[in-house]
Amino acid sequence: MAVFNAVGRTDEPWLAIIDCSIDIGTRKALVVLRVPLSAIHQKQGAIGLQDCECIGLKISTRWNGPLVKDALVEIFGKAGMPQAIIKDGGTDLKKGVELYREVEYAKQVWVIEDLGHVAANALKAEFAERTAFSVFLEIIRKGAARIRQTDLASLLPPKIRTKGRFQGITELAQWAEKLLNLMGGQGRSKEDSELGMLRKAFRGLSQLRLFLEQFGATCRVTEQFLKLLKLKGLNQATYSEAKTLLKQLPDRSEVHARLSSWLDRHLHIQCRLAIGQLPLLVSSDAIESLFGKFKTIVQRNPQAELNRLVYIIPLLCGTHTSAQIDLALRGCSHGRMLDQIEQTIPPTLRQQRHRILDSASSDQIPETGNPARLKAG
Question: β-strands 14-20, 28-36: how paired?
Fold first, then answer.
C-alpha cells in the first residue's frame, strides 16, 4: 500500500495500459499500468510486468463509461498525463476513454487498440459464421469426449474457450493440422488399432481438410504478425515487415483488410507522437499477465472475492529492492493501512455474512457455551 501511495508524476514520456479484471465475487477491478515509451527499445523484446508500474487501482461492482472516465481523471490527476492509452475493445473502457478525451486537457492523448484483440476479432469475422467452422468445432467436441478416458487422451485438443475463443484459436488450428497428418490419407486401418480408433473418434475431420488448410494458414500468418509487433513494437521498419507478412493472405481476406487498416492507423499515431523510430507498444499482454497471476493467488480461497489482497497487484509490477521494502514498511503503519482499506475496499460477502449472522445469534448464545468463541465466527 505504501508503494502504491508513493505513485507520482514522471518526466519520462509514458503509455498507460488499462483494463478491467474478470468478476471476482461480486466485484471487478480497474487497473492502470504505466510503461515508459522507451521500454521495448531498451529491452529489445516484449515487455513484462517488471517493466510496468501500477498507478491506478479501483474496485467496483460494475464499470461503465462515466465510472471509467471519473477513475481516469483521478488516476491521471495524480500520476500525470500519458502520451497514449492502450486498451482492448470492451464497451465500458471504450466509452470511458472517449469521455475522458472530451476533457479539454486530455484531447491530445492518443488511443491504441490492443493488437491481440483486433487480430482475434478479425479471425472471428472471417471464420465464425462459416458452416465448415461450426462443423469443425462439433467434431472436435464429440471427438474429445470419445477419447478422454482412453489411451488416446494424450491427443486431446486444446480446450475450446466460449468467451474470447479466437484469442487462442491458433493453437487449435495447429493441433488439427497435426492430427490430420497423424490420421493419414485414404486407406483402411485395422478396427482395433489406435489409428482406427482415432479416425472413428474424429469422424468427418478429413472431409474438412481444404478448409483446415486455409484456416491454419491464416492463423499462422496472424501469429507471425502478432509475434513481430509484440516483440519489436511498431515503427516504420516493423510496419514494412508486417505488410509483407499480410501479403501471404488473399486480398479479399477479412483478416488482411482489418490488420492492414490497423497498421495504417497506428503508424500514424507513432508518427504523431514525434518519437522518431522508437517502437510503439501495441499490446496489453502485460496487464493480462497481471490479472492471471492475481487470479491464481485469489482462487486459492474457496470463496474468492476482491478483498484487501487486491493491494498485492502493485507488488506484482516493477522491481522492489530490500531498501525500498524497508522504507515502505516504515512509511505505512498498520493503523493507516486498515483505515485505507476501510475507505477503498467495501465489506466482502463473507464479512457481511458474519456480521448479519453474529447479530442475529447474539441473543441466542447457550448458557453453557463460550460466548467469546461463538461470537468470533
Answer: antiparallel
Which uninterrupted H or E stretch holds 42? helix 39-43
Lookup result for grid cell 476533457: 103
Q: What is the mean pLDDT of residues 147-151?
A: 89
88: left (phi over 0), alpha (psi -120 to 50) or beta: beta
Which class in CATH covers the domain with range 2-114+283-344? Answer: alpha beta
pTM of the predicted model as reported, rounded to 2 decimal places: 0.83
What beta strand segments (E) does the chain contain?
14-20, 28-36, 53-60, 84-87, 110-113
Q: Does position 274 have pLDDT exceeding 60, yes or no?
A: yes
What are the Cα distances from residue 243, in Å, to 45, 119, 251, 339?
20, 14, 12, 54
Other beta carbons within 10 Å of 200? 13
Q: Domain ranges in the chain? A: 2-114+283-344, 115-274
What is the tens place of the pLDDT at every residue in 33-75?
Answer: 999 998 888 888 888 899 999 999 988 888 999 999 999 999 9
From CA 87, how far away is CA 107, in angstroms rounded? 17
